[in-house]
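Go through this pair.

…
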Amino acid sequence: MTNIRAAITGVGGYVPDYILTNEELSRMVDTSDEWITQRVGIKERRILREKGKATSYLATNAVKELLEKTNTDPKDVDLLVISTITPDMRFPSAANITGYNAGLVNAITFDLNAACSGFIYGLEVVSRLIESGSYKKAILVGADMMSTITDYTDRSTCPLFGDAAAAVLVEPSDSGYGVIDRIIGYNGIGRQYLYMKAGGSLHPPTHETIDNKEHYVYQDGKSVFKFAVETMSDISVEIMQRNNISPNKNTWLVPHQANMRIIEAVSRRMGLDKEHVLINIEKYGNTTAATIPLCFWDFEKQLKKGDDVIITAFGAGFTYGSIYIKWAYSSN
């Protein structure tokens, strides 16, 4: 029996044109470029400012670029999953809107919500469906318009987030490439440390929830930082150990881009030098579900067929995961 794996065979991405710099933020709230850079490592982030455009616009552009780069006929795509916490509306899904706009007439489409772990959770779902033999060409998108749920009067959170989307094509492979191993889980205690209070069925939108600024991200930074460092480090080291992966020129870490200090702590535990950690947090900030595929998009030419790639993330909930991928192609 052939061992079918789910392999990433292409990457596309999209970021808005507008760049919100630390210097501009310092004129909006009591902060500074030095303060932000030292604490989180972010210099700028992209913001979608055009009226009438939302998360599906970001995702559609990423999907269209992916289709063009991989010479894929939209009619051949049979699955589209978008990981997002900022869909255009409660329903229909951002995937439904994106699939229509990108011409994916034969795909089933749905959204997935795992916050900053969205791409990890999404890849788990998509890879299992590919491995089952039920789907042949799947697109997984991480997309978020975080500017819509960011309070730009709160200096503890407004420097962190940006808007972006990135997409990967996932196809079956019988050559040993693709998703090899994974550790994925959650710890429900995290629901009290990172959340958006209003907008759901527990606290529907009212004048009071709007006046109280309950439709923005809330984060207990110290608790999130501690959990992220410990969990991402532990599961990524475990992935390396049980797959006999050693730090070398063909080993890459692609971490969720939330905080430079978290990234550095995780890479140290894994024994990887900075040259083998894909980092673009300084340019885009935390784009939640988009951060990992956005790194693929930025650094695609550095990844070679056969490379060992470990992705890891944490998110609200808490959600977390680490996936080991044997990279399936070399980009020209």
About this structure: The CA atoms of residues 128 and 313 lie 19 Å apart. The chain has a mean pLDDT of 96. DSSP finds ten helices and 13 strands in the chain.
